[in-house]
Structures are given as C-alpha cells and as structure tokens.
Automatic annotation (TrEMBL), chain A:
Keywords: DNA replication. InterPro entries: AAA+_ATPase, DNA_pol3_clamp-load_cplx_C, DNA_Rep/Repair_Clamp_Loader, P-loop_NTPase. GO terms for biological process: DNA repair; leading strand elongation; sister chromatid cohesion. Pfam families: DNA_pol3_delta2, RCF1-5-like_lid, RFC_C. GO terms for molecular function: DNA binding; DNA clamp loader activity. The lineage of its organism: Eukaryota, Fungi, Dikarya, Ascomycota, Saccharomycotina. Residues 34-187 form the AAA+ ATPase domain. It comes from Babjeviella inositovora NRRL Y-12698. It comes from the Eukaryota. One of its GO terms (cellular component) is Elg1 RFC-like complex. This is AAA+ ATPase domain-containing protein. SMART domains: AAA. Gene3D superfamilies: 1.10.8.60, 1.20.272.10, P-loop containing nucleotide triphosphate hydrolases.
UniProtKB/TrEMBL annotation, chain B:
This is Replication factor C subunit 2. SMART domains: AAA. It comes from the Eukaryota. InterPro entries: AAA+_ATPase, ATPase_AAA_core, DNA_pol3_clamp-load_cplx_C, DNA_Rep/Repair_Clamp_Loader, P-loop_NTPase, Rep_factorC_C, RFC_lid. The keyword ATP-binding applies. Keywords: ATP-binding, DNA replication, Nucleotide-binding, Nucleus.
TrEMBL record, chain C:
GO terms for cellular component: nucleus. The lineage of its organism: Eukaryota, Fungi, Dikarya, Ascomycota, Saccharomycotina. Residues 125-152, 756-776 are annotated as: Disordered. It comes from Babjeviella inositovora NRRL Y-12698. Residues 282-441 form the AAA+ ATPase domain. This is AAA+ ATPase domain-containing protein. InterPro entries: AAA+_ATPase (IPR003593), ATPase_AAA_core (IPR003959), P-loop_NTPase (IPR027417). It comes from the Eukaryota. Residues 131-146 have a biased composition (Low complexity). Transmembrane segments: none annotated. GO terms for molecular function: ATP binding; ATP hydrolysis activity; DNA binding.
Amino acid sequence: MSLWVDKYRPKSLEATDYHPEIADRLKALASSSDFPHLLVYGPPGAGKKTRILATLQQLYGPAVEKMKIDVRQFQTASNRKLEFNVVSSSYHLEITPSDMGNNDRVVIQDLLKEVAQTEQVDFSGKHRFKVVIINEADSLTRDAQAALRRTMEKYSGNIRLVLLSNTTSNIIPPIKSRCLLVRVAAPSEAEVATILDKVCKKESVSVVETERSQVLQLMAAHSGRNLRKALLLLEAMVMQNDHLSLKTPVIQLDWEGVIRDLTASVLKERSVAKLQLARTVFYELLSHCIPAKVILKTVCWELLRGVQRDSLKVEIIELASVFDERLSLGQKAIFHLEGFLAKVMVAMEQ
Amino acid sequence: MSSILTQTSETPSESQHTPWVEKYRPKNLDDVASQDHAVAVLKKTLQSANLPHMLFYGPPGTGKTSTVLALAKELYGPNLIKSRVLELNASDERGILIVRQKVKTFARLTVSNPSADDLARYPCPPYKIIILDEADSMTSDAQSALRRTMETYSGVTRFCLICNYITRIIDPLASRCSKFRFRPLDDANALARLAHVADTERVNREAGVLEQVLRIANGDLRKAITFLQSATRLHLDGDEVAEITNKSILEIAGVVPDEVIGRLIAASAAKDMEKLFTTVNDVMLEGWSSVQILSQVHDLLILDDSLQPDQKSRISRVLFETDKRLSAGADEHVQVLNLLSQLSLIL
Amino acid sequence: MSIEEGKTPEISGGKDILLELVPEMSPAEVNTNSLPDFLFRANGGVSTLLSLEGDAAYDSAVAPPLFTLKAADSLLLGSPARDAVLSSDAPAFSFKASDSFLLSKPVSEPTDTTAPPFTFKVSESSLLGKPEPSSSSRPSLSNIPPAYSATSSRPKVDAKLLNGREVSFKRRCRKQIDEGITGMVDERHYGVNINELYSRLELMNLVNEDRPVRAKKPTGSVLWAEKWRPNTFFDLVGNEKTNRYILQWLKQWSRAVFGQPLERSGKLADNEVNPDPFQRPRKKILLIHGPPGIGKTTVAHVLSKQMGYDIMEINASDERSGVRIKDKVHNSLTSMTFSGKPNVLVADEVDGAAENGFIRVLTDLIYHDSRAVANYQREKSRGDRKKQPFLMRPIITICNDLYAPALEKLKPHCEILSFKKPGERLIRERLTEVLRLERKLGLFTKKEVADVVNVNGGDIRSCLNYLQFNSGDKGPSVSQTSTKDTQVNWYAIVNRLFSRNNRPAVEQFGELTRLIENYSGNNYDKIINGCFSLYQLVYYHDEGLRKPAEISDWLYFNDLLGSNAVVSDGFDSLSYSTVVVLKFWDLFSDLNNYNSNFRIPNLDYEHFQAFQHNYTLIGDCLNSSLHHALAFPVSLRVLLQRQSMSLEVLPLVNKIILPEFQKQASSANRSILMANKGNKAKVERAAEILHELNIEIHNKRNIETSTFALEFEPCYDSVVAFTDILEKQLAQKKTVVLPVLAEELLKFTKKRRSPAGAVETDATTKGETKRPKHTNSMDFFKNRYDELNNTLNRDMSEDRKRASAQHRIWVKYHEGFSNAVRKNITWNDLWEN
C-alpha cells in the first residue's frame, strides 16, 4: 500500500470532497459528445491533477488507471538526440515538456503529431479522441505555445488537450481563447481539516479525542491550504509520534526552519557578519534545489511577521517585489538574494 | 487548421464540433457588419477586377479575416478558390525559409484558366491572392524577404496582409499596400449579430447575458461568440441546454468577482498591513489570475470619480510597475501584495 | 710596442685576445671627472662607448677592466667626447697579442689636455675558464678512470660452500656512464671525485649559459605535465583514500585475472558474500569523475601498472563509434598481450557527446556477463559459450562531468568514485619538487608558487604548464600585467581591486581602468565573481550596510548585460562590465588592504556540484530513464511536480520512512523493539512504503570514514538535510532504525513474491533496455512454467498445499499502447518489478 496521499485520492468525480460545482461541470463535459480543450489552473496542492484523472476515468472507464512510462527519443534541430518520458495508458498521454528546457517546442510538435496521426483502434472506446495532458504549461516557452496553438487547430479531431498550470498569466491569449478555463481554488482550512479527519478515522490514528478538531485545525493551518502537504504531514506525524495531541509538535520543514532562524537573527541585529551568514545559508538552500523565488518569498513573509512598523512593512514588500523581478530577469540568484537582504537591513536601520 | 476555404459540407455530427466562429462567419461581403468604408472599396474592385495589395489593420475580432475570405469567395467561387488562394496564418511556419520557398513558389505559378462556367458566375480575375493573416508576428527578416516577391510577381499575385498593429509591419511592405483601417464594432451591430447567433443555436439565456458577454469581450466579436459557445457547452446536460446565467459567464471568462476586488481595495485603503496580508493570501489561494486582478483594479480605480487626478497618476504608475514585473515573469503573490501596499499609501 | 701615428697594427693569429686597460698615471692623479670615455669599435661592429667609471677608489692593484676582442677586429680608439671622433679621420689601431703599447690621442685632433694617456696591455692567457682551443668544449668523463679496470684484471673473490665445493666470484663491472643525455653528472655514480665533478659542473654551467637545457627526448622540449607524471603510487598527489579504494577494487579482480586468492575469503568490499563465481567485485566498471587536471588518468595508469596489468587506453581521440571499436575492446579484454600481462581497459573522456556507440559496447559487455553468470549459476550452459563471455578484465572509465547525458546508461553498472581537488599543500610540495628537479627553483618565490596553485584551483596540469612556460629567461611574474595568461590575471586583478594607495584617486582609477581593459579574458565574470566572493572578507569602511546594498544594484546591471548578450546577441554591451568591476574598487578598496594577498574562496563551484547532484536525484525519482528501479511508482509520480518534491514531498517522505521509536535507548535488541505494538506497526508500515517507493537498504561503505553502514538507496538526505547538526542526528537515528527496517523489508518483499496470495501479474513494464529476442515465446514460457511449478511446490508449506487446489498459472500479457506491440519481456521482469 502506498502513501496516504495516494491511497485516499478520490478516483472518481463523485468521490471528491470539495468544490462540488467543478465536479458537476466536469462530469457534464465528459458526458457530452463534445469535449473541449481544457486549461485547469490553481495553486499547488489544490487537487487539479486528481480531478483531471477522475474526469478521464469518467470518459474512458477504469482502464486509464493502468499507466506505464515510456521513453521516447526525438531529434532537435541541431541533430542532438534527446530522450523524454511519456506516461501513458491506452487512452491518454501525459507529458511535461518544460523538462526539456528550450527544446519543448520540438517535443510538442513531434509527439502530438505522432499521437494524432494514429487513430484509435479500440472500437469499444466511447470517444474518438485521445487526451493529452500537458503538465506545467506555464513554464512552456513562447515558441512551444505557438506550436501548441497550431497543433490544437490541426489535430483537434483526434486529440483533446488538457493543460495544467499554476497561473494563467504566462499562457498566451490565443491558447486561452481556444480552451475552457477551469479554476480550481485551494480548499479552505475547514475542508482540509475535514479530509484529515476522514483519513484519521479510516487509519485509526490515535488522537486525543477532546482535542481532535483543534489538532486537525492546527495541522490544516500549517499546511497552508495545500492538501498534498497536509496529508504528508499527517502521515509523517503519525510515524514520528504515538499519539497526536495539542502537545505534539507539528513537524517543521527543515528548509523553512533554516530561513526562520536566519530572519530571526537578522531581526535581532544587523551587521556584516549577518550578511556573511546569510550568504552561506542562501548557497545551501539553492544547492538543495529550493527555487530562488520561493526563498525570497519565504524570507519576505518571515520578515513581515517580525517587523512592527507598517511603513517598514511597505518598504520590505516593495524591495521584495523589485528583487523578484531581478530574479526573473537575471541569472545569478545569489547576487539578488543577498542584495535583497542587504537592502532590507539598511531599511531596518533607519 | 484546415483552411476555412477548403471546408466542404459537413456531416451533422461534425457540425456540432465546429466552432461557431467559423460557422457564422460572413459568407459574402454584404454580411460583414459595420465596416462600411472598407466594404465599399472592395465592392468596387469586384467590378473592376483590379485589386491592389491590401493591408488590413485594426483591433482583433472586427472582421478583417472574414472580409478577405468573403472577398475571395465572391471573386473565385468554390471551385477555383483552392488553386487561387494561399492562406498562411500565425499557426503556420512563416519563417524566412517558408517565405522563400512556399510563398515564392505559389506566387510564381501562372494563373490557370477558369472554366467558362466559373467565368459566368464569378469575376475570376487573372491573378492569385496570398493572404498573410496575423502578419505582425512575422519577423522583420521574413517581411523583408517578402518585399521583392510582392513586386516581382505583382502581375499574377496580390497580397493581403492582416494585422493588429500597423507599426509592426515594416515600412517597405506597408508602402506597397493600400491600407484599410477596421474600426471596432459599434454595440448595436455587434449585439444584433450575437443575438442572431444565439437564436439560431437556440441558446437558453437570462436577460442581459449578451450585453455582459459583449462587455467582457471588449468589442471583440470573435471572443464574444466563443464565450457564448463555451457557456453553452458547460450548461449542456445531456443535450439539454440549461439556462446560462450571468454568473457562469463570469466564471468562464475568468473574471474576478467584483466583490473580491472590492475586498482587496478596502483592505488596502484601511492601511492595515496585517489584514491586507491575509486578504491577499486568501485571494491568491483562490487561484485568480494576477493580470486579471490588475486589469480590474485599474478599471475600478481609474474610472472612480472620487479620486484626485494626482492620485490617479500615482496609481497609474504603480499599476505600470506591477504590470512590467508580471510580464517579466515575477511571482504573482508578491507582486499583487506590493501593488496593494503601494496603493495603500495613495488611497 | 708603441704605435706610430698613422700606422695600423694588426692582430693576427685568429685568436681572441684580452684587452687590458691600464692607466699610466698614478691613482692619485686619476680623478673621476677627468676619466675620458673611449670608443671601441670592432670591424663593422657597433661602436660601443665604454666609459671607465672610476670611482675614487680606483686602484691599479685592482684588476683593470677587461675587454674581449675578437680576432681580426680592428679597434678604433678615440675620444668620443666630441662628435669628431666618429669621423673617418680617427685612426684605427690594431693590436697584436702580447703587445703592449701606449695609446695616445692622435695629434691632428684637438687634444684634451686633461685626458691622460692610457696604456693598453694585451695578454692572452689568464682568462678564467677559457678552454684550450684544441680540446673539446666540455670535459668528458672519459678522462676519469673507471673505478674498476677491464674484465681481465678484475679482482676475484674465492669462497667455499658448506658442501666443500669451491667457487669463485668475479667483481661486477660497472657500466660506463654516459652523461651526455641529461647534461648532468649522474649522482648515483659512486667512486667519482665529487669535487672534481663539481668544478667541472661549474665550468659547464658558465659556458652553457646560453644553451637551452636539453630535455629527456632530443626532439624539442617536453611538457612538464607529461614529463613529471607520477610513475609510482607514492608520487600521486591527493585523494589518498580514493586511491587505496581503487587498489582494493583492482585487487578484487586478481582472483579472476591471475587466479590469486583474495585475503578475505571471497568477501566483497562491503562485507557481503559475493555471489559472483569468480569473486569479482559487484560493479565491474569503475567510473572516476572529477575536475580536469587532478590526476585521474594518471591514477588509472599507475595503479593498473602496479597491480601488474598492461594498459589499453581508449580516449576521445580514438574512433569510438561503430563496429571497429567493439572488436578492439573485445580483443583487448580477451586476448593476451606480448608482454604476458593482462590488459586493463582504460576508457578516458567517456562523457563526450557522441559516445553512445561506445557506451553501448560497454553496457553490452556487462549485460552478457550478467547473463552468463546467471546461466552459470543455474548450471545450464547455453550452447556456444563464446557468445556470452564473462568479463574477465577490469574496466576503468574516466569522465569530467558525471551528469552528462551519455553516461546515463552506464552509471547503474559502475562503481562511481569522485576525485576531489588535492589539497594545496600537497600540490605546492609537488610543484616545488618539480621545480627543483628542473633547476628552476630560484625563479619562483614561495609566494608565487602558492599563488599559482590558488589561481589554478587544484588543477596540477595547468599549474605545471604555467610554471614551465613562465620559467623562461625573463622569469615569471604572477602579478605582471603584461602576461597574457588570463588565469593568473583575474586573480591578480581581484587582489588589486581591493587595495588602495596614497596616490590621487583619479590616477589610481585611470591605472585600474587600463589594467582591466587590457585583460584579455573573454568576459569579466570571473573577476566579478571573485570580487563578490571576496568583498565580505576584506576590510572596508562603511556605515551600516550601505555598500553591499549599493553593489547589489550594480551586480544586477551586470546581470542584465549578460542576459542581453545571450538573448539578443548584443555582445557589445559586455564591455560595460568594466564599470561594474571598477565600482567594486570604488566601494571596497581601502588603504589597509594594500599589498595583501587574498585567498579567494570558491563557494560557487562546490554549491553548483551539490545542486547538480540533487537535481539529478530528484529527476531520477520522477522520470523513468533507465533508473526505473529507483523511481517512484507511476501512480505516485503522476501526482507530483518537480518543484513540490524538494519543497514538501521529499522532506516529509524522509520523515515517514524513518519512524521515531519509543524507548530508543534500549534499541539494540530487535525483539524488544518489536514487542511494542506501536513500534511494530510503524516498522511494518515503513517497510511497506519503502517497498512501494522502490527504496532499498544497502550496506554501504563510507569512503571518508572507511566504515560500513546501512543506508537508503537512493538516499535523499542530500536534498533534505541542512546543517551538519541535523545530518548527525539523522545518522544516529539511522544506526538505530535501519537494521530493524532492513529485516522487515526483506520479510515484506519475500511475502510479496510468494504465490500464496493473489498473484500479481501486473504487466506494467517500465522502460527497459533492449533485450535480445527469444527464439520462440512458447518454448520460453514452457520452460519457465516447469521451473516455476517446481519452485512453487518447494516453497509452499504443507497446509497450504493441502488447502489450495492445483495451481494454474495464468499469464496475461497486456499489450501496451503504441510501441509496446512487439516487446519481449523476461519472466523475471514480471516477478521482480
């Protein structure tokens, strides 16, 4: 048996616990004869993928659950052979083109062309088309999106696209106009707590009864309305403790703890030594594959929590915004992270 | 996309799947609504069969492509149209290589003689047409490669360029064409057209839905029709169309509810940073697009009469900064928070 | 001989002569101011103005100045005080050996009465070191009598053996030593008068000053990097533990190759019993990776030679694609060499882009070998043995970039060893040794050597190159701005940038601008990165943190320039980077830093390596590639994104698989631990999850501490754990928890495989390497059916046998989608997925 995140994933649209209107809508679409291209967006851990898979199950039946991974090869313009992974079942395909970096355009063109040109042989299938899920659609380059648009038009008879992304800002308007937008919001804390409760009951987790709802509420708050994180957190806490009560410490993620310590020490006192300490911390975080923007955001939030003066808060937020842009446009993250902290320290001194 | 020109009659099941935009495209020049000037000129050329190179420009969804296609249909009739018209839009490869090969080859071909039957029914002028749709996304190199081709083969080929911003077309090309400006549709016309579509498709709707659709689409008729189609799809409950409400239109369009924007502005005006922080956090976790939020905040504030002009100018500056950073790819949450905290200093 | 006016004395004899200038006046009369200058000119040569700079202490007793005149030169003497000297009117004088004469000014010239007359004495002999014209230019040791005379007159020693036999021994005859090649006296030649040798040496040195030092091979000069390659184990610099590990690994091959028994009877390095029939190490290919120039190839060569192998090297310069390389490899691995020593295949630079053919050859070897082993273990000889040979020779592969895509297929079969840069002290010692042997030690100060080591960052080869090509006549200067070597330059520039002296700022600014603009490197990134790393460590004057804040804007500017260059080909804008560099000087330079030599830390590179490692680890986890065994199951992978892995999934999963036990103190005893129900449940659950996530527990050897410890495979600690304290805590916890987990996991997997429960014929094949085609699927299945039936009957316990009816084995082969139509899978795959 697998992690609780996987075990308690709803496998059908009816089984989803929150956002019933989305489930209804998707069901309606699936049962109609005309399934459009979809663009599903929302914050991470909200349940987008789960709902897509449930929709697929509605479209094609349980055969979609049997998935396997293939490695496909393709050739770039400069005659370099690259490999990428395709998760597939008999009725659908799933790819993450942004893994290929700048070559994602070729992936989309070649793969979709190949898929589209093979007709569905299975006559028992309810639909003529295959579904292609594209993950991380907001990381696609402009070229890839242009190629996608072309492919959407050409092959819409055989393929239906489902694009998954966190935001729609990076998707070009022609694609947005060709897709149906489905917004999946993060579940509220109460909804997260309800789900945690359900899992606890099923797994007979020992919780102090009187404190049950508070404990679960606390965990839901710590997860930041990210259901994946909440379920993993629950499982980890069960493995680390025998009983759950208000006294059991909620597990802090190490990288968050590191950032918290750094900001606490900066709030206390500012000096060049602190900047040196910050540099080593930033290097370490970056080498642990924490994205630089996440580091910036978390440092900013922690600082805001600790600072009292409102005007200082405004300044810090402005600095964060400036350096966020620099991180996007520039290449060396460490320069900008350190610069942000230096300027914040200067602002705090005034 | 298979060219619209080559679409023959479809089976009933397929006709369900064709976008309404295609289905209700004007089929002749008379159908084209509210572009009187351009249509008048083109009608005259129909008679004289002497067409210049054309450059159509204007905001999206105003009928540029439709006009050209209608023109082509009227000139050549369904039989000749495949051999006489080449259409390339932004979905096709239009790099400099393609210009040199495909376009040039097509331009060079001699014009086939039309059959007597066709000659009787349609003007069938002795030249071909190349339609370059969305020409402003062609690179300037590709556009330069086009100049000479236009001149050399102007005897047998006419070019028609369609674009949104005329400044993106290089001067040499623009000077070779006669320009036609397409104005945004006026509301009455657009509404009438939309109502016609809705009625033909038997769309069950609430009152005021069509006006709202037009408002959201910003005068872009194509967008409006697409919205309508998506809404209809969503409300299909096994071949039955439930009533489309205003709310669902907003949801499909991804428009942020006014109430949410109001909350944000209120928190900003209250100058309470704590509250602002939590409000923004909640809103972002709902998944709304930051660009949409930005645009709606802009509409709300700039059109607000209670604010002073100097306040408005400072607000504009803040909006500009945020937009710039978002288009650079910055993190949405941080930028929206910054937007509102800067606004709190102004409001 | 006195010279008469107007006559030209001749020098004859073809000999060089010495000209000695002796003033005729007494020293007291000579005073500095009145010493005239004399013009000497040889035939057709340039006039040389020789001024006799006498000091007040000019003493005739002191050896008068000497000038060498070549034979057949005529000397023009005249007073150059006036330009008239150079006219052709001036008489020429010639000299003859052993003449002395009085030279005085020609009467026709207006005389300078103050100029004293000088006597010129010509003498020949007493030149120091002047060789006999007839003798050869260098003394040869042939003049030295050999220590022992010729054979016939060699002394004999008589001896009597225990059994009464008499034998006589002749003294060994020493060989004649020809020192001609090295130009040096061979110091190992005893019995020679060392003092005489020394004096001859000095002679030679003086004479040969202009002659280039001849290297080992007479064909031009040899690169020091080649000449001073280590030949023995002790000469290797750095990475000692790794070298020993390689030796051990090679030693394990000894049994297979030489038939020697191992010391520890058949145990692998990690104390497990070796299933291999030849007791070879488990991973048969060694992969060494590390930065360039630290000695990877050298180590492979030296160690293989020491273990008694011959080296067959295949590197990037060889044709490595196609059939020919396959033949070459097979030949080297299976045939004997002329020297009688077995071959080791050293494949250098395997991370090239186009090496797929070659890598495939290697992986095929491994594959055939493993199949042969499997067959051997089942005691089935499959037809022609030759087609499935065992791999009987070690293979060492070397690369720079461990994460090159070409290596993906090779890595699972390799023992991966990381070579780090050797320590600076070791490199310095080696460099000093080389310099001493090359007799260039005097040219470099200790500080300069240290600088060279610093700049080149552990790359011994480039240090040697630098030293070699800067040990020319002029001598080196590490900080000299005129050198073209950019590696040194940036280092020196960075150091300069932080120092300030008392001169006016504008002047210093100008100087620095010129310095930087002359920098011939590609871009200023190295300098800027160096400044960035260093600025926090130097002393500078600042209020609060204003300066770091300011420099961050400039760094952003520089960043934009770089992006602009890449994106829109605007390389011109890169020249504006000089401004950024100068800004560093403006902000951070200080008088206190004058002339100090800073060590620039290079945190960037280390962290980049760590990042690469973690990035690949996460990638393997999510993607199939060929590490399918290490990846998460498909159903889980579908739900995860790369970003969420490092942020939340891996940290929490790590906590899940390492449960916290109650009463950990008394943990040694497994049964006590498991007796607690809560613990038992946790352990079982953890084992379940480990199995699901394809994480195994292995006994791994830690190279640093040379101990064995249980460890997860793959280990996500590097992604998850921060700071050393947390890592230590984790390590401690692991020693407690992992043994228990390992046992539970084993139990769990056995349970999973047994057919008692539902047989899981889940034909989810994950991406596989190509397997050879079987002749007939039906036969294949028939064979396996029998075998499986036997295994089944053996494994099942009695009651189970009774309970279950006759088992039939159903196999359902799911045809996958698209390219799975003709895919052969082996029986093992179905069971061991």
